[in-house]
Every structure is written in structure tokens, then in C-alpha cells.
Amino acid sequence: MTEETRRPGRPWVAAAFLCFSVLILGMDDSILNLALPSISKEFGATIGELQWAINAYLLAFAALLLTMGALGDRFGRKRVFEAGIILFGLGSLGAALSTSMGMLIACRASMGLGGAIVLPQTLSIIRASFTDPKECAQAIALWAGIFALGYGIGPAIGGILLEHFEWSSVFLLNIPVVIIAFAGGYFSIQESRDQSAPRLDPPGVVLSTAGLCSLVYGIIKAGEQSWTEGSVITWLSVGVVLLAIFAWWERRSDHPMLPMRFFKNMSFTGATIPMTLAALSTAALLFFLSQYFQSVQGYSPLAAALRLMPGAVVAFATAIVAAPLASTIGTKLTVSLGLFISGSGLFCLSFVTTDTSWLAVVGANIIVGAGFGLAWSPAANSVMGSLPVRRAGIGSAMDATTQQVGGVLGVAALGAVLNMIYLDKIGNLRVLASLPEAASEAIRNSIQSAHIVAGKFPEDISQQIIDGSRDAFTSGMVEAMLIGGIIMAVASVVTLFILPSRIRPSQE
Description:
The chain has helices at 11-28, 36-43, 47-75, 77-96, 101-129, 133-164, 169-172, 174-188, 202-224, 230-252, 266-282, 285-296, 301-329, 331-349, 358-385, 392-427, 437-445, 447-454, 459-498; strands at 3-5, 192-194. By secondary structure, it is mostly helical. It has 3 domains: 1-197, Up-down Bundle (Growth Hormone, Chain: A), CATH 1.20.1250.20; 199-255; 265-508, MFS general substrate transporter like domains (Growth Hormone, Chain: A, Up-down Bundle), CATH 1.20.1250. Strands 1-2 form a two-stranded antiparallel sheet. The protein is globular and about 75 Å long.
């Protein structure tokens, strides 16, 4: 036996605790956003520091997934999972007890590291625990649905907590979840590893980590500054070069961390490419709509979060039904249909105006969520099913890495589209010419700053500033959604050409 795996008698129990773990990972991708104003007041944080409270988590998470997936295959997925969940819990506790922005950012980075350790192990353990392909597909569908649900309910949970407690509560919430996940996993998960795993590949680890760190950091900086900024170009170039060297090294190495032959299997590559495009298209949706509901339509943070929840709930539901649908009509058609539906929702959002009914916006977001859930779980199952069980960790990590990088790229790129159009529209606002330079500059910074400035002027001027900023933000958002819809449509068509209808396992 090349795979040491003593499958548990009740794999669904193990899967339940693993899904419980990814629920909190999904929530932590989005829950902090609502707490940023409170954190800023307590620590006197700058905008840059607040951005890095978010980005430190994303950078560590996205850059280290590949390495951690390989470590799980070699040293034991359960053991590595337990180490990761403990680190995530300690990082959460440190974040809750932070006394400075520096400490908070460092703790968020440790949470990202913990998440990077945990996420690939959850999917690879599921792959190793189920012998029946249909049951495995259903378990992966549940995993994908729970992850999507966590991402969607994060803002709502954060809003409820912040209504009654301090900002630290959004981190303290993780502690009981971590304890339950660790204890449940300890008793229900059986250890599995690749007994014939090659020895460690230090050059591959260094090159992949450094390359992804540089690439993700460059993407994040592009979202903060500009794609043409010298430092941004440098970081992106270094990242691309290092990843190219990584691919070259993996092809030459006799013990590669990521065997390049996996990419010859289109069940692997054909699912990875379209879902990367899908992540790029939809990642900025929560960022856009949370601001649209609050700053354009005037809802409270909690009311805005509750309007975002239906999309996540529907994504959870469609991810569950995607497995039996894929077994009936094939993986290719299911993934392509899901991407087409999701793209249709983005196209609907590209017609939103400042006074569009919130029901219409929620309806379009539900369409996006329905399609994404339908596509995600069979795509993940295609990636995992294409690889031998013993390499499940690296397969899971590859699936997560491409989507995380696609997500970061989407927020930066589509956010840049919104910002460019916002600046163009707000620059044409006639009232700016009569305002002090400092006030005009603040209005150009963001729609939130525009609303703060508006409160300092008489009602007629104030209303012009508010109306102008709302129109400028909405114009930028709908253009970004149109681009996202086009990318999603392209991904749907690409899927029809490159993804097999049935999963083709690698011949090893």
C-alpha cells in the first residue's frame, strides 16, 4: 500500500467536523470588514494599517497553501490539520487581545498561516476517507457549500456581534469553534499520508512560497496604488519569474513537490482554469455590495449584511445538489451551466442604479450565488478525483491556491476599475470647484469620505456631494460587474472545450 489510510468507520462524522472547520475559515475571509471602524477608533489606525489587517491574512493564506498541502501528504494530514487549527485558534486569541495595530496585523498573519495549514488538509482527508466515488463527491459538495456559506454569513455574524459587543468578539467567536473542531477531529479523523511520498523539496518550497508571496503582495499593492506603480511592477515581475523557475525546477526534480504531469490531465487543469476565472469575477462582489447597501442606499451594517446572506445560503444549497446533477449530466455541463448562471447574475448587477430596489439587487446576488455553488463543488471534485489519493493534499492545495490568488486578483483588478470610474465621475462634479482643496481631495478618496465631508457644508451643497458620490460609486461598480460577467461567460465557454464530462483519474 502506497497510502497509509485507516478509513474511519463513520467518515461522515469526520466530514462534519472538517466542514465545521472550513465554516470558520470562510467567515474569517469576510467578518473583519464590519469591525474596521471600531478598530480604527481604538488604535487610531491609518487606512493602510486597516488594509493590512485584512491583507496580512490573505497574503499568508494564499501564499502558503501549496507548501502546506505537500507537508500534509508527507507527515500525516490529521497531524498537520491539528497543528493548523491550534495555530488558527492562538492567532484568533492574540488578535482579540491586541493592544496595537502591529500586534493585530501580526496575529492576523498567524491566522492566515493556520488557515493555509488547515484548508488543504480538510479536502484531502475527505478524499482519503471515502471509498465510494459518489459519496466522496457528495462530501466534497458539502465541503464547498459550507465554505461558501461561511463566507456569506461572516458579515451578518459580525454585524450581530458588533451590535452587542466589542470588536474583539469577532475573533473570540473562533475559539469555541476551534475547540470543537479539534476535539471532534481528534476522535473521528483517522490518519492518512503518502507512504511513498518523496523526500522534501526545499527548493520547490522556497520558490513556490517566495513566488506566490511576491505575486499576491504585488496584486494587493496594485489594488492600493496602481498597476503601473514601479514597486507593483517589480513585485509582480519577481513573482512571475520565481514561479516560472519553480515550474522549471519541478519538471527537472526527481522528487517534485508539485509534479507538472498533473497538468496534462484535463480533469485537473480543465477545472482549475475556469474556477480561477470565476473567483476573479466574484471575489469583489461582497466588497462592492456591502458598500452599495450602506453608502449608496443608506442601510446599517447589519441590515446590509442580512441582504448579502441569501446569496450565500443559495450557494450552499446548489453546491449540495451539484453532485447528483454532475453524475447525471456530467461534470463539464454542470460546471459550465453554473458559471453561465453566475455570469448572468453579474450581468443583472451591471444594470443597477442608485435607487434600484434592494430586492432586485438581492435577487441578482442570489443568481450569482446559485451558479457559483453549482460550479464549485463538481470542479473541486474533478480536481481531487483526477489525482491518486496519496497526493490528495497537493491537489487540495492547488485547488485552493488558484482560487485564492484569483480572488485577490479580482478584488485588486475590479476594485481598480471602480476606483478609476469613481475618480472620473467625481472629478466632473461642479460643486468641487467651490470647495477647499482638502475637502475636494477627501471626496475623491472614497464615497465614505465624501459623506463625512458633506456633513460639514450647508444642505444644498451637502446633497450635491452625496448624490454625486453615490452616482460615481454606482457607475464604477456596474462597470466592474459587467467585466466580471464577461469573464464568467468566457469561463463557461472555456469549460465546454477543456473539461471532460467524466473525471479521468491519473494513471500512476
